[in-house]
Amino acid sequence: MSTPRTLDLPDGVMATSIETPVGTFAAHVSRVGSPTAHVLLIPGWTGSKEDFTPLLPLLAEAGFDATAYDQRGQFETAGAPGSDYTLDGFAADAIAIAATCSDAPAHLLGHSFGGLVAQQAVLANPSAWRSLSLLDTGPGALGETPTRPLTMILDAIGVVPMADIHRFREQAIGAKRAPDIAEFLLRRFTSNDPPSLKAMTQALMDAPDRIDELAGLAVPIWVGRGADDDAWPHDIQATMAQRLGTEIHVIADSAHSPAIENTHGLADAWLPFLAQH
């Protein structure tokens, strides 16, 4: 979960809805005249489009249109009975959004769980993408960690009120929030469609490793993490980068959410890759 430092939208960033053939998705977007390319950003488990909002103006300054969106059933994107809450389904959503936003292939970045979705989207349709960027994510399932008791959360979703699950997580990490940020985090978590969140949690526990398949594609790949990232182990992420024929970029002064915690540091490490491709 990324925690915004402000809820104010930066200049040039707009909250909107994107209509696609597979549904409507809440998004934050920045648009420029004659863009170099389009960048699509996929948030992670219990996250949202707001995880990338501070980054959008920097992408615009570099000449890119950019779109960050809430995944299906996540925060302000509605879920629905019968929705495809599998990695394949979430990936199909990303492909549809990218095609709606631009006629040309897009750059794709997935953060945390969003990285698993991004991998699936590239494997499903390599020609839709100029590049793939993986941020604070791994080659497959995250599994249980001391700070992420996924089995407990999985069992609680749909049984325990969502607000109670959120409060338990906040108490477990000893979080101290400004009132407006605390209210936003509660509203975001409780707005998740429980089947969507349950499916995302399950995927974090059992997603397959498909890195060798990705490495066989011609899509350029960038890998980065926060210096103090506490999700996938650092050595796992570094090995993933090696398997993909690249190296990992470590963003100083950040943990699991560099786009918020060190926005300029992430941009400095990532934008040269986008410009190259």
What key phrases describe this protein's structure?
single chain, 277 residues, alpha/beta, Rossmann fold, 8-stranded mixed sheet, 40% helix
Description:
The two termini are 29 Å apart. This protein has an eight-stranded mixed β-sheet. The protein contains eleven helices and eight strands. Helices cover 40% and strands 18% of the residues. Helix 4 runs antiparallel to helix 7. The protein has one domain: Alpha/Beta hydrolase fold, catalytic domain (Rossmann fold). The longest helix has 15 residues. By secondary structure, the chain is of the alpha/beta class.
Uncertain regions spanning at least 5 consecutive residues: none
Task: Output the CATH homologous superfamily.
Answer: Alpha/Beta hydrolase fold, catalytic domain
Number of DSSP E strands: 8
- Second rung of CATH, namely the architecture: 3-Layer(aba) Sandwich
| Biggest sheet character | 8 strands, mixed
- The end-to-end distance, rounded to whole angstroms, is 29 Å
Global morphology: globular
Q: What structural class results from the helix and strand content?
A: alpha/beta
Whole-number mean pLDDT: 96
For the record, the count of structural domains works out to 1
Strand order of the largest sheet: 1-2-4-3-5-6-7-8
Q: What is the fold named in CATH at topology level?
A: Rossmann fold
> With helices defined by DSSP (H or I, 4 residues minimum), what is the helix count?
11
Radius of gyration equals 17 Å
Proportion of residues in β-strands: 15-25%
What's the helix-strand series? EEEHEHEHEHHHHHEHEHH
